[in-house]
Amino acid sequence: LEMYAVFPGVDKLTTNPKTAEMIKYTANSLLATMISFSNEIGNLCAALGDIDVVDVMKGVHLDKRLTPILPNGERVVPAFTSYLEAGCGFGGSCFPKDVKALVAHGQKNGRSMQLLNAVIQINKKQPEKIISLLNKHFPELDGVDVAVLGLAFKPGTDDMRESPAIPVVNYLLKQGAQVKAYDQVAKHEAFNIFGNGQICYCDDLEETLAGVDAVVLLTGWQEFEKLPALLAEKETQPVVVDGRRMIDKNSVARYEGIGLNRR
User: Fold this and answer.
1) For residue 63, what pLDDT band results from cuts at 50, 70 and 90?
2) Any idea what DSSP says for residue 258?
3) CA distance 103 to 97
4) Domain 127-257 CATH class label
5) Any residues with CB less than 8 A from the CB of 248 and at least 6 apart, and which?
6) At what angle do helices 165-174 and 187-194 cross, to 10 degrees?
7) Residue 86: which of 257, 255, 263 has the closest Cα?
8) Where along the chain do the CATH 3.40.50.720 domains lie?
């Protein structure tokens, strides 16, 4: 415990190395499972129609076992509830790797790990939902001007490892779409992945939105909350595909979102 002495006031659990490793893998796999569960429910909501997964999850979050109410009436909202929200999938260096590690360990020891296999498969297919929503308005993407907002796998980092933006952008480019991208923090990482030939990397949000046919929101950067106000100033309204469900569905003229089917 000496090496942890510099972290006063935090919980410490003494165990063996194998158990410590399993704790780390299990914690991340639980959060990844919550994300894929939310996306599975979101995809079902979209298939059924007239159900918005945002409303569904708001109702689920009201369960006192998830968000307990204190004696003074204040509701406690634990941070983990943010993983119970539908979107375009998880990425990064930890969740995909740790879930796959548990699957591999399980298979090596005769366990099929069906649940965690499903978590990975659901997540792998989730970026396809973005393309499906775009195809509702543009059956052919060749020549369509698309603004991609966000490239990092989550806000607050430049990490693009296993980011949902990678398969989405690659598909757009393959189909001949004209891609403009904006993520000031992850821009240099995008250069390494996509190069700088096919994508127009923009320096601000206003420049990115200029003259586009569609907007695809893939990372929940706070800056993107002003998207509705910026689009309200435009004469021609692009289709907005919200891969993070971070803006109000009624705040823009042409809105599509994960877990929502506007027939």
Assistant:
1) very high
2) T
3) 10
4) alpha beta
5) 228
6) 50
7) 257
8) 17-125, 127-257
Bridge partner residues of 145 (DSSP): 178
Task: Indicate the CATH number for domain 17-125.
Answer: 3.40.50.720
Tens digit of pLDDT for each residue in 173-217? 999 999 999 999 999 999 999 987 899 999 999 999 999 999 999
How many Å apart are CA 126 and CA 120, to the nearest integer? Answer: 10
What residue type is 200 in one-letter code?
C
Backbone angles phi, psi at 18, to 5 degrees: -65, -40
pLDDT at 1: 65
Q: Could you tell me the CA-to-CA distances from 98 to 13, 28, 105, 156 in Å, in that order?
A: 21, 7, 10, 21
The answer to whether residue 88 is catalytic is no
Query: What is this structure's pTM?
Result: 0.95
Establish how many alpha carbons lie within 13 A of residue 41's alpha carbon, considering only the half-sphere containing its beta carbon.
Answer: 17
Give me the catalytic one of 45, 94, 200, 202: 94
